[in-house]
Amino acid sequence: MKADFYDTLDRQASALLAGEDDVIAAMANFSALLNESLEDLNWVGFYIKREDQLVLGPFQGKVACTRIQLGKGVCGNAAAQNITLRVADVHQFEGHIACDSASNSEIVIPVRRGNEVIAVLDIDSPSFDRFDSEDQLGLEKLVKSLESCLFA
């Protein structure tokens, strides 16, 4: 059951991040944990908000786009709108930025300090429709735990 999987993963993430207040170190280990734990991914990592753009942060995967304007692509839209975006087929997403042509589906979750978006967690898959509503709920819970560890 996916909910149980994500509950276990959340406990692992919380233990891994306990006492760590450096954003880069926490994001690096968090992305490594997700990359090791989730199946059927080809990229997982963070883009950190810097003024009107997102700048590449810690990640696992192939080389990636370095900068994304707010409001552009899946990541830029998720950050600008302060919402999770789950895209079953990135090729159908208007304005999709193809950093890796092997990516076919994507989920992007804002990372917040209070109500302010400070980064996004971006996860790509080579499979179409890889992420469902249970994945979204589980990953949003994990991001809440990351926020709690960093900004409590």
From TrEMBL:
Signal peptide: none annotated. One of its GO terms (cellular component) is cytosol. Pfam families: GAF_2 (PF13185). It comes from the Bacteria. InterPro entries: FRMsr_CS, GAF, GAF-like_dom_sf, Phosphatase_reg/MetRdx. Residues 35-140 form the GAF domain. One of its GO terms (molecular function) is L-methionine-(R)-S-oxide reductase activity. Belongs to the free Met sulfoxide reductase family. This is GAF domain-containing protein. It comes from Shewanella denitrificans (strain OS217 / ATCC BAA-1090 / DSM 15013).
